[in-house]
Design brief:
The structure holds two protein chains of two kinds. Chain A contains 14 helices and two strands. Chain A is mainly α. In chain A, strand 1 and strand 2 (about 65) form a beta hairpin. In chain A, helix 2 (about 25-50) crosses helix 14 and helix 5 (about 115-130) packs antiparallel against helix 8 (about 170-195). Chain A starts with 7 loop residues before the first helix and ends with a helix. Chain B has 13 helices and no strands. Chain B has helices spanning about 5-30, 55-60, 65-95, 100-110, 120-130, 135-160, 165-170, 175-190, 190-205, 210-215, 225-235, 240-260, 260-270. Chain B is globular, with a radius of gyration of 23 Å. Chain B starts with a helix and ends in a 6-residue tail after the last helix. The chains are: A mainly alpha, B mainly alpha. At the A-B interface, helix 2, helix 4, helix 5, helix 6 and helix 7 of A face helix 1, helix 3, helix 4, helix 5 and helix 6 of B.
Amino acid sequence: MKRAPRGPARLTGRYARRAPGEPRAVGYLYVLPALALYGALLVFPFGQSVWLSLLHWDGLTAATWAGGDNYHDLLTDPDLRAPFAHALILLVFYSALPVAIGLLLAALLSRARVRGMTFFRTVLFLPQVLALVVVGVAWRSILAPDGLLNDTLEAVGLGTLARPWLGDYDWALPAVGIVGTWVGTGLCMVLFLAGAQRIPRELYEAARLDGAGPIREFLAVTLPGLRPQIAVALTLTIVAGLRNFDLIYITTSGGPGNATSVPAYEVYHRAFETNQVGSAAAIGVTLTLLIFVLTVGISRLVEGRRT
Amino acid sequence: MISRTERTLTYAILALFTVVSLTPVLGILATALGPQSSLSTGFTLPDDGLHWGNFADAWTSGHFGTYLRNSALVTLSVVAVATLLSVLAGYAFGVMRFPGSTPLFYLFVLGLALPQEALVVPLYFDLRHLELTDTYWGLILPQAAQSLAFGVFWMRTYFRGSARSVIEAARIDGANSWTTLWRVLVPMARPAISTLVVIVFMWTWNEFLMALVMVSDEAHRTVPLGLAFFQGQHSSETALLAAAAVLIALPVVIVYVALQRRFIAGMLSGAVKE
């Protein structure tokens, strides 16, 4: 327990933060219900996941101690390494592309006053709002052998490029990735547009007086001004990309073969379809670590440069 | 200030992205209104009038009436529980000082980045042991718990920023912390609370993995689950599939369009730390 600072600060500290006559401990009573539910159904199960990841267990018979075996397999078993490799490739589509496209648009739009911004923002953000199951169903239609994409390709004379996108060993992963780009781009654009509008106009005027062209202006004014928004966009899209389960389940179920299997899908598949509970838990824990490392890394990168 | 060409280019690009954003949405809407007999698995445009009956068929023969009822029940419960507990805890974290409050708060914040995949396996075995799988509780409790990470974070940020002088005035009038919260702060916090309600509503309504794991009987299926199973069994019935997808998306889209500003602000702050 920290000692309260002395002097006037202590007085306000004591009297501003609780009603007279109420004990300090009253705070705990307000936190308790949330903490009980959160502890029982989030913190405790996470601890159990860590424990399960150290066991060989099929979910039915007695578990045996595995130690680091499940984690060792993550590094050595190609069937387990592939989903993580797929996830990293998908991050290009789920995170890098949306951020790049979003920046490009913000660069254009930060120079012009756009009418109807509310309309554009509402429409561009819409994919974020739809259930990924609905998104998956819609895009399955587009990517189907006789779907919109192939129809369009044939209509413009590129019929030879048409293929069953989600059933093709080489194209299924990028095809799912494009769906992720569709979902994430609006989010990045909305974030960057909001950020760009907060950049002081004078900075642009000063840059122009110094003879800066559009590209210089972007690099010297827009990009640095958007740093916090870029960090948020990267964090949100990377976390969403690594958690990606719904889209894979609906569009490809990890197939063809395991060409589109990702860690989140592998957790489900192993725990509930092939009875490798310990291995599934190890993937879940590794995924958590990966998300924490990337999230902390991004915020460090941004804060470190700012100061 | 900028040239006419540049202005035109700006609008052209915005229009292009609007089309890209809307195509899948409009495509599924068109398919939902198309004829059921169509053999195409891609989008179809209705050429012989609009088949509104698809929605009725999805509702009855696709059992989406049941699924929508389940989703409504689960979502309302999660929203109610998560909002109430978030307001209470956010209030304590925001305006009171007690030993351990900072680490406890960070425990909640960490939940923002914790993926469901790291919880869902033990949760399934725990809840099965308690005989709560295939019940509404099995859907409500875990999702309420997961919503608390954002809820507590969001309400604490609000209460921290809310006028300290108001709280002090209430206290001088002799109000205790409970009365201050419900009589003074909560009425003032209506915009912040409604943002929280809308975000938790959307997350719970759209939730898939947890529902997939916790529910195996049809009677407790929520809409996203219903759609996934419908696709698995009737993948050739494109029009009904699309109609069901529209039925599922509609409640969230209506709320979103009505409250888009608040909605976007809430979603974006989910990952923004102080």
